[in-house]
Design a protein that fits this description.
A six-stranded parallel sheet has the order 1-10-9-2-5-8, with helices on both faces. The chain is an alpha/beta fold. The protein is globular, with a radius of gyration of 17 Å. The termini are far apart. It has one domain: Rossmann fold (3-Layer(aba) Sandwich). The mean pLDDT is 93. The longest helix is centred in the C-terminal third of the chain and has 24 residues.
């Protein structure tokens, strides 16, 4: 019984810490976003089961809006590249952003953003970013800001439109567990990115 109570308390605490960490740092109105040089766009596949993935579309739309509003100068598109021409999240994001009028030389592909933690830490340790705008749906931004703060990064978030469907409900349920993992990664496991590598320079 005590173990069950402790587990529930841990789940609740881990989930609420992400909300606390991001208070006042997530914006849905592009005009209110503090301008910074770099935006980090979190990857996802562009299609699921043959259908358009709305999480992808809405993140791309938000990233393009922030760029065209002058809130960021460079976009890092960070996602999974499984060494296959059929699955490359950063490349798909790049193509979609270029189609929305963003110059290709203002987009940087991070092919090793396998998890949110990897994307956030790599932005600092590989690309030298200490302040950034995180672009995704609110649930992921809250978790990403917690991770960013834990690693000495000043982060804000621009909230992409969420997905209101059965798929969206499943994603929010999975997020409960992801936040427990987030808290453990920071406070107990000292988890590092699966891949780092040499330092890279962002466009001037």
């Amino acid at each position: 019984m005590l173990l069950a109570v402790a587990f529930v308390a841990l789940v609740a605490y881990a989930n609420i810490t992400a909300v606390w960490a991001s208070r006042g740092r997530i914006f849905s109105d592009v005009s209110q976003i503090p301008a910074t040089k770099v935006g980090l766009v979190f990857g996802t596949t562009d299609r699921v089961g043959g259908r358009e993935n709305l999480y992808f579309r809405y993140r791309i739309e938000a990233a393009a809006e922030a760029f065209h509003a002058g809130k960021v100068e460079t976009l890092i598109v960070s996602g999974d590249n499984r060494s296959s021409r059929y699955y490359n999240e950063p490349e798909k994001m790049r193509q979609a952003l270029v189609a929305r009028g963003i110059p290709a030389d203002r987009i940087v592909d991070d092919d090793d953003g396998i998890r949110t933690l990897d994307s956030v830490i790599r932005a600092k340790e590989i690309y030298g970013v200490d302040t950034m705008l995180l672009i995704s749906q609110r649930f992921q931004i809250e978790r990403a800001i917690y991770l960013a703060k834990a690693h000495g990064i000043n982060a804000y978030g621009f909230e992409a439109r969420d997905v209101e469907s059965q798929a969206g409900l499943k994603t929010r349920i999975r997020e409960i567990g992801a936040r427990v993992k987030m808290w453990l990664d920071v406070n107990f496991l000292n988890t590092r990115p699966q891949r780092l590598g040499e330092r890279e320079t962002l466009p001037e």
